[in-house]
């Protein structure tokens, strides 16, 4: 019988090569695009009121914020100067860094700038944030440590057009740095996954303790608040049905409490994930909270199956090719020189085999 210590050592040696490769690149790309796009869209929407929210016209003055920062020691570049033009420069830099990160342009540098500007604006007036802002705050920090520009980015497109050295030709220092960067990326993605699980677990268990959630009426009240009813007729229709209110209230609690446990069952996790994405989209529509919902959907992307993301990529690529006009004359069909019955020789040369990609954190390939 093999000793337990020997089995553990063998398993660790077998897992080490996988830990030193970049896992979940597609999930990291969706997280990058979602978080940066959400924050950039929020800044654009608030452009007319930016000075009132975070700048020199804010009721929460720079002096009051300085007192708070003395206790919290939070970072914000806006504490360096309370002038208007310094604020305008930081706000514009926040917009540019969000756009650059969403597009995947110079991802490492833009991720750092994005995190610094998110912290600078949010810590200038902490009383404006909601759950979505808190999530963007955390994800902006985590993205700094990920390789979120490996795919679906301008950086990836540039690398494909101008490939560098073969990794086999790298020297030992660069190979070691690459392995450490891959491990750091994997750890960051694991932290992102743990953060999402923590968000749902705490939200679900706090709801369980609430009297309105226990009697099945909690969803009714926000549907009757004017601030959360951009579509009063639709909100009234849903809130007027006791059965719908009851189902939405209990369904929300069951999904949030059960999601952490569903990670042990891949198919159940995928079903709950799809339902929760639909729930967030419904919150964006019914309660008028689009940025909160988009931030949650972007964070949920860390659990999306790689096969699903590849299927979406293939579908979008096919649509783009059909929509793009043909350039130049059609190439002549190749002359078959091998036996037509040979399936290898008869295969379409324009169809590539799907790439082998890493699986998302904590699950096997779907």
TrEMBL record:
The keyword Transmembrane helix applies. This is HTTM-like domain-containing protein. GO terms for cellular component: endomembrane system. PANTHER family: HTTM DOMAIN-CONTAINING PROTEIN, SPORULATION-DELAYING PROTEIN SDPB. SMART domains: HTTM. It comes from the Bacteria. The keyword Transmembrane applies. The chain crosses the membrane at residues 85-105, 135-154, 175-203, 237-259, 271-288, 294-312.
């Amino acid at each position: 019988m093999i000793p337990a210590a020997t089995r553990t050592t063998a398993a660790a040696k077998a897992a080490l090569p996988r830990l030193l490769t970049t896992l979940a690149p597609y999930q990291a790309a969706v997280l990058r695009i979602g978080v940066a796009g959400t924050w950039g869209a929020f800044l654009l929407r608030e452009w007319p009121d930016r000075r009132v929210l975070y700048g020199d016209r804010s009721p929460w003055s720079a002096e009051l914020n300085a007192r708070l920062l003395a206790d919290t020691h939070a970072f914000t570049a806006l504490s360096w100067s309370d002038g208007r033009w310094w604020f305008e420069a930081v706000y514009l830099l926040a917009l540019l860094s969000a756009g650059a990160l969403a597009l995947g342009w110079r991802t490492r540098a833009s991720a750092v700038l994005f995190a610094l500007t998110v912290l600078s604006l949010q810590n200038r007036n902490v009383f404006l944030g909601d759950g979505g802002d808190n999530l963007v705050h955390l994800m902006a920090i985590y993205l700094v440590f990920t390789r979120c520009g490996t795919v679906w980015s301008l950086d990836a497109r540039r690398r494909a057009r101008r490939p560098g050295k073969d990794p086999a030709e790298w020297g030992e220092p660069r190979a070691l740095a690459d392995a450490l960067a891959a491990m750091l990326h994997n750890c960051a993605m694991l932290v992102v996954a743990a953060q999402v699980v923590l968000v749902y677990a705490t939200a679900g268990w706090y709801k369980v303790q609430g009297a309105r959630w226990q009697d099945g009426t909690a969803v009714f009240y926000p549907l009757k608040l004017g601030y959360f009813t951009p579509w009063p007729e639709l909100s009234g229709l849903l809130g007027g049905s006791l059965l719908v209110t009851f189902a939405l209230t209990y369904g929300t609690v069951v999904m949030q409490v059960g999601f952490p446990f569903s990670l042990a069952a891949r198919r159940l996790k995928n079903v709950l994930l799809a339902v929760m994405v639909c729930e967030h989209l419904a919150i964006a529509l019914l309660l008028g909270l689009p940025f909160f919902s988009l931030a949650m959907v972007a964070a949920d992307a860390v659990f999306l199956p790689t096969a699903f993301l590849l299927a979406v990529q293939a579908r979008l690529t096919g649509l783009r090719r059909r929509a793009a006009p043909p350039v130049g004359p059609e190439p002549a069909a190749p002359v078959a020189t091998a036996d037509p019955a040979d399936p290898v020789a008869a295969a379409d040369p324009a169809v590539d085999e799907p790439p082998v990609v890493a699986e998302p954190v904590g699950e096997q390939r779907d």
